[in-house]
Amino acid sequence: FVMAGPCVIESQVVCLDIADRLLDIGQRTGVGMIFKASFDKANRSSISSFRGPGMEKGLEILEKVRLKTALPVMTDVHEPAQAAQAGDVVDCLQVPAFLCRQTDLLCACARTRKPVNVKKGQFLSPGEMKNVVEKIRACDNEKIILTERGTFFGYNRLVNDMTSIETMKELGCPVVFDATHSTQQPGGLGNATAGRPQGVSELMVKFVP
Asked: What is the pLDDT of residues 66-110, one digit of tens each?
């Protein structure tokens, strides 16, 4: 599988365009595609940065993408109160890296009974994701996905420790390699091949028209 889409929902037109292209790529290559986009990027660095259309409008757009293309759809949530409403629309919920230890958020996502993709915080060792997995399993949800998205290497720089993929696989969960955010550089897709020899279940990339 490949998880792909815009970082944030810009408009319905853009999302449908990207989803149609992903559908075509998937049909031509035989690779399963999951459409991912955020209705609100609550972790933007700047107060003036575009965050998205908001939850109500964003979920409406994601539902249209799902109905038009039949692609599975994923979005991230930042607060426990968002989980149930988002879970009624999307196929998979994502917990952002900087919130990966938030127990209430993890449990709220788990209780939707939808698959939960948790991005490993840049500040965590891969072994510490065991606690994250246990929190979700404690809420009777075994549909857990873990994503490697880089580790802090000093200030303003991330590196990928591919051994972390093997460590997280030992937790009994599929592991995704985020080839875009883990490099934080345009054109970072060239780094994506490193995830394949490590046996990742999926790749995650940002896709813009």
From this structure: 999 999 999 999 999 999 999 999 999 999 999 999 999 999 999
Indicate the number of domains in the chain.
1
- CATH number for the domain spanning 97: value is 3.20.20.70
Q: Which phi and psi angles does 204 have, rounded to 5°?
A: -120, 130
**Strand, coil or helix: what is 73?**
strand
* Element spanning 52, H or E: none
- State which residues form the domain around 68: 2-206
Q: What is the Cα–Cα distance from 29 to 127, expressed in whole angstroms?
A: 34
Name the token pair of 57: 């409008």
Whether 33 and 25 have beta carbons less than 8 Å apart is answered as yes
For residue 74, the cross-strand partners are: 36, 92
Rounded Cα distance between 198 and 191, Å, is 13
Contacts (Cβ under 8 Å, ≥6 apart) of 136? 106, 107, 109, 110, 116, 118, 144
Look at the pTM and tell me if it is higher than 0.85.
yes
CB 200 within 8 A of CB 176: yes
Query: What is the phi/psi pair of residue 145, to 5°?
Result: -125, 140
